[in-house]
């Protein structure tokens, strides 16, 4: 076995769209991912073909898509939480191995003639479970492998891998099925995972900071990720823009087969050509991406690409010329890649690493939700009013979404944000240390603020309160002492002492440090603001057999942390 490959490589200032491929590990992982994507598309073609052979029920055929998509809705949030809590390399190995094993099992039962519709649906669902667990952690790998300034190109190259596989995978799957069988396609898909497994196994990941605390519970981690997104405007803007775009764009994927078969009355091969044109457009967009990034802001890129996608929908609804449709679908492929690349880069760079996978899982869930809901809505409109009306409605919707830039601008999410902590937090002075599970904990900070400085102080404190909630506070408030006009007390509450200790380990973010510097300039007096830590107390009867230590609320023996 070859020696493990170290990543990432030293930063580079090149703006070539292919610069990330100069990093050996990223290049080989990209190739392995492309092979795996080819296998996935072969799997999809084989599953549909096999199901139509096993049953004539259109419901069971449609359930294949449900079996693939349902795991995303069930596991996106837990998968994001796990990816933030466990070692990402080990999680990738586990998910890739799971998918390889399921694909090979599906190949075996098919080649042996033991498959049936419900077994095919079950194994497709199990394969989808692996994909749902894999997706959030897979998207967090790229920022670890390439320098931050090359992240847009790297994500674009990943999109190229997917689109090239979409262009060639179905055709290769059709050839394999035609010459051999669906079982052979499933076998090749299972084997395609082996290259990715080897590459992840060879990844000599840089040592990560380890916590001395117990690992967060998954449910608490999910709540923390949702809470972070709720109080992070930059994340909210991406999620709103993402779901609004995919809701309209879903009409293309939902209605394009009907356009080809019913309106144009052309063979399925024309549909495949349109998909290939979209893949070509994505490749063109990836090549031109660095130049576009230099000339256009993220808001302009998304706005123009959304308008171009809307134009493609109108063309699909009204145009009859084949070559015009080829050109329009190439433009649509470019627009699709540019918009999703902008969202993907944004969602991976506006948050610190400790919550990155959870934020990505929220983004993926939002995108999938927009696609699923849009497909139902535009499909219903097409059934009642026709595909042309549905495509026109979707184009109009996308046109309206360009106005979202006025309220949900993406310029607050630059691609060069630095989430390195500005400084560590000062350790609290404690008479006795609580156990990690004790809580809730209330932290108070007392300031001395002159009445004339109260308006700017309260404004800054409200910004700090948003950061407190984003970082894990379940409650926050600012109060004035009615007996002392200059005494102001801020409090925030966290669920447990462990949660507060994790906040200390993460350090003080740069925006929090900047706010605190401004706030402390308004503080009066020679002493710094006074901080206290208050731990919730609960009454518990004291057993008669256990004497008390004089002057203490602690027991001589018994469970640590119990108090009267």
Automatic annotation (TrEMBL):
SUPFAM superfamilies: MFS general substrate transporter (SSF103473). One of its GO terms (molecular function) is transmembrane transporter activity. CDD domains: MFS_MefA_like (cd06173). Gene3D superfamilies: MFS general substrate transporter like domains. It is found in: Cell membrane. Pfam families: MFS_3. Keywords: Cell membrane, Membrane, Transmembrane, Transmembrane helix, Transport. Residues 25-417 form the Major facilitator superfamily (MFS) profile domain. The keyword Lyase does not apply. The chain crosses the membrane at residues 25-42, 62-86, 98-119, 176-201, 238-258, 270-290, 302-319, 325-350, 362-381, 387-406. It is a multi-pass membrane protein. One of its GO terms (cellular component) is plasma membrane. This is MFS transporter.
């Amino acid at each position: 076995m070859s020696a493990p490959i170290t990543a990432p490589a030293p930063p580079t200032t090149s703006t070539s769209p292919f610069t990330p491929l100069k990093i050996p590990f990223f290049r080989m992982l990209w190739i392995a991912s492309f092979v795996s994507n080819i296998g996935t598309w072969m799997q999809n073609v084989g599953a549909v073909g096999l199901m139509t052979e096993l049953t004539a029920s259109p419901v069971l055929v449609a359930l294949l898509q449900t079996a693939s998509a349902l795991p995303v809705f069930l596991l996106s949030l837990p998968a994001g939480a796990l990816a933030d809590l466990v070692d990402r390399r080990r999680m990738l190995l586990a998910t890739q191995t799971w998918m390889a094993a399921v694909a090979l099992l599906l190949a075996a039962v098919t080649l042996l003639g033991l498959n049936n519709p419900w077994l095919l649906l079950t194994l497709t669902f199990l394969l989808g479970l692996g994909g749902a667990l894999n997706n959030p952690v897979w998207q967090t790998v790229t920022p670890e492998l390439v320098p931050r300034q090359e992240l847009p190109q790297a994500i674009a190259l990943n999109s190229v891998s997917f689109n090239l596989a979409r262009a060639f995978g179905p055709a290769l799957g059709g050839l394999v099925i035609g010459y051999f069988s669906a079982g052979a396609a499933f076998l090749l898909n299972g084997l395609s995972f082996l290259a990715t497994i080897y590459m992840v196994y060879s990844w000599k990941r840089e040592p990560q900071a380890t916590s001395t605390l117990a690992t967060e519970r998954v449910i608490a981690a999910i709540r923390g990720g949702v809470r972070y997104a709720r109080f992070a405007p930059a994340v909210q803007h991406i999620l709103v823009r993402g779901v609004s775009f995919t809701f309209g764009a879903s009409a293309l994927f939902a209605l394009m087969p009907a356009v080809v078969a019913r309106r144009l009355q052309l063979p399925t091969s024309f549909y495949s050509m349109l998909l290939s044109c979209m893949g070509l457009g994505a490749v063109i967009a990836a090549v031109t991406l660095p130049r576009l990034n230099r000339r256009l802001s993220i808001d302009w890129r998304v706005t123009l690409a959304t308008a171009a996608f809307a134009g493609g929908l109108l063309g699909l609804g009204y145009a009859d010329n084949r070559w015009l449709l080829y050109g329009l679908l190439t433009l649509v492929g470019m627009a699709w890649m540019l918009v999703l690349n902008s969202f993907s880069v944004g969602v991976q760079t506006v948050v610190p690493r400790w919550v990155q996978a959870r934020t990505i899982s929220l983004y993926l869930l939002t995108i999938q939700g927009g696609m699923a809901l849009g497909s139902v809505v535009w499909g219903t409109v097409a059934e009642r009013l026709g595909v042309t009306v549905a495509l026109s409605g979707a184009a109009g919707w996308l046109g309206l979404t360009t106005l979202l830039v006025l309220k949900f601008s993406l310029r607050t999410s630059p691609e060069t944000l630095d989430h390195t902590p500005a400084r560590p937090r000062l350790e609290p002075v404690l008479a006795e240390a609580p156990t990690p599970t004790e809580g809730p904990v209330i932290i108070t900070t007392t300031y001395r603020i002159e009445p004339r400085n109260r308006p700017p102080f309260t404004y800054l404190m409200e910004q700090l309160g948003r950061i407190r909630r984003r970082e894990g506070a379940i409650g926050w408030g600012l109060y004035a002492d009615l007996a002392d006009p200059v005494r102001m007390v801020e409090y925030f509450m966290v669920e447990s002492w462990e949660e507060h200790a994790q906040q200390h380990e993460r350090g003080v973010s740069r925006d929090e440090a900047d706010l605190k510097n401004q706030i402390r300039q308004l503080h009066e007096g020679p002493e710094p603001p006074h901080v206290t830590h208050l731990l919730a107390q609960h009454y518990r009867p004291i057993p008669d057999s256990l004497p008390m230590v004089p002057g203490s609320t602690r027991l001589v023996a018994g469970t640590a942390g119990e108090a009267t």
